[in-house]
Amino acid sequence: MTNHDLHKIAFIGDYLPRKCGIATFTHDLRSAIAKASDANCIVVPMDDIVGGYDYEDEVQFQVVEQELDDYRAAADFLNFSNVDMVSLQHEFGIYGGASGSHVLALLRDLRMPVVTTLHTVLSDPNQSQRAVMKQLVRLSSRLVVMTERSRQTLINTYAVPSEKVDLIAHGIPNRPDIDQVKLKEQFGVEGRSVALTFGLLSPGKGIEHVLQAIPEIIRHFPDFIYLVLGATHPSLIREQGERYRISLERMAKELRITKHVSFYNRFVELDELTEFIGTADLYITPYLNVQQAVSGTLAYAFGCGQAVISTPYWHAEELLADGRGVLVPFADPKAIAREVIGLLADEPRRSAMREQAYLLGRDMTWDHVSQLYVNSFKHAIEDHNIQRTPLAVRTLDERPLALPQMQLDHLQHMSDSTGIVQHAIYSIPDHGHGYCTDDNARALILTVLIEELGKDSPDVQMLASRYAAFLNVAFDRDTGRFRNFMSFDRRWLERDGSDDSQGRALWALGICIGRSRRGGMVSWARELFHRALSSCENTTSPRTWALGILGIHEYLRRYHGDRVASTMSERLARKLIEMYESVATDDWPWFENVATYNNAKLPQALLSYGRSSGDARATEIGLKSLRWLGEKQRSPEGRFRPIGCNGFSRDDGTTAIFDQQAIEAHAMVSASIEAYAVTGDAAWAEQAHLAFDWFLGRNDLGMPLYDASTGGCYDGLMENQVNENQGAESTLAFLLSLAEMQQLASLE
């Protein structure tokens, strides 16, 4: 196979002029491959701002980062454009969906081989990241990593065959000859000792520890100056403004080193960057994340022949081994000062280090690296033994059915400064019935799922704050329990809420802790979670136990080492298992002698517990009981038929058909998705779709229950008509189901 067999290559990832390291890498890789292969190299970038960026002509299709449909449309575009090969740049944070799962929808529909460059390889991923990574590995023909440590992690942690992984260094420009004396004169630092750090600024870069080292450095080198080159990361600007940079400037003033520090708050082009590197006497990367698999800034500085001092994150530990650089402990200003002073005082050692780095860097130039990528592409084509027809027509059976767009108009309409109102008369909020903890907990969960889907906004954050405030005041710190019902004039109507409201509130708090990125929300929820944790155990309600298990499971996403929470989850699971084993038979594999409401939450809780703890018995009971419940809730026509509000019993044997409630459909959607996550069996994903379709009109009356214009949902399906009131419980059941189905859609 020759290079000319690669006629058309598509590059997917962030792209210049977007300001981020992946965008620069994709641009440089694309330019180098175009030169090395003579292929037509097109780009499909991710857009994180409205309207995208002012791209060059090679960009032929744009994807809005958080729009799942755009990913599928991009796959169609590439399939119909006769693309021979796709080069994907992967970092969890640059794609939409939970843990960047939207990109899987694109990969799943492609009809050509994909070579994925992994810019991050986590050795201890959470469940969501592991699930995405597993699919990414499966859908990629080959994987490229930039360090041996990353390659070993793929093999050992993700069970990737070694022959599927290519180790290719981060590319760097071929540095021209430089005259450091002239460059120092150009930058006005002639006669001074210069240290440099560059890259997009964010708290994980550890700049503060270098600043704290400077007072000791200038005792030995009074002419020392530290250049910090780079704009604040755009996403950080949107979330926090310039808070980090401002804190660094104030720290420099407090340390009385303002004459020795210079911040360049801009994103520099390659030519200017090379000049800055040439000006410096040494380069410092004080990063704080040990698992950072690659640093483009480190590769650039090293390859340009700089003496480097770095913390021992993965990339630095490998690149600077055998004396090619200096490693210092994380967050250790004294060590940084010691090594800076040592290198500046030892010109021969520093020169030898620079020469060694420059020589090794010749194998990292884009001219060399691009040929290794071309070889990887050719291997991928040769290994691509699944013959796909790029222009094949796909039936509905071959691709996921469309989901409605999420509309929050009715949710906002039902919410006021207190929280969400319980009931509605048609679509009008019924203030006469006030509020309840149950609905505000559900609503808070929804805002976190929306945040996780990348659809966060000031309006959603405002709603989240109101629902959280309701739960906060609902909690009685004297009893450790939540009150439930509040009148419209903000008077509590009871001294103690239902058992179910305790479990549902704990579930909401756990999701805030485990999934939200809002620091204040997480801290608040953690404090309340610990106060409320014990209340679930002191009840006789299996649904409260189940909701408590789900809340703990979410909490352990972030604090998986918490023994108290883990022990409580185990005790609650044991209660459910013991209840099941005392009641269940082959004909009635259920927890109680009756099945009433919110039924699927019971098997879901055991599946969740079994998945996280490895308890095979819990998983077995969860699957068996959910399978039985699914069969009980299916009409002769094969539609989802939720148990009517009167339920059914073991003794009676008659199943109530009406009134059908939205809460049952949501419970089955959630539980089926959990079963799919546990087993990988597509039948469970199909059951989730079946339950969700109940909202859309695939039900006994053939009538939709959701209002497409507002996202509201009718309160139930009666024998001959729908209940046209759009209360909080039903509306939230639909919106929660939709959010979970959107997450599922990118994983199927």
UniProtKB/TrEMBL annotation:
Any one GO molecular function term = glycosyltransferase activity
What Gene Ontology biological process does one annotation of this record name? carbohydrate metabolic process
InterPro entries noted in UniProt: 6-hairpin_glycosidase_sf, Glyco_trans_1, Glyco_trans_4-like_N
UniProt domain Glycosyltransferase subfamily 4-like N-terminal: residue ranges: 97-172
The record's keywords, sorted A to Z, are: Glycosyltransferase, Transferase
Enumerate the spans annotated as Glycosyl transferase family domain: 185-358
Look up the domain of life of the source.
Bacteria
Q: Which Pfam families match?
A: Glyco_transf_4 (PF13439), Glycos_transf_1 (PF00534)
Family annotation (CDD domains):
GT4_mannosyltransferase-like
- This protein's name: GDP-mannose-dependent alpha-(1-6)-phosphatidylinositol monomannoside mannosyltransferase
Per the UniProt record, the source organism is Rosistilla oblonga
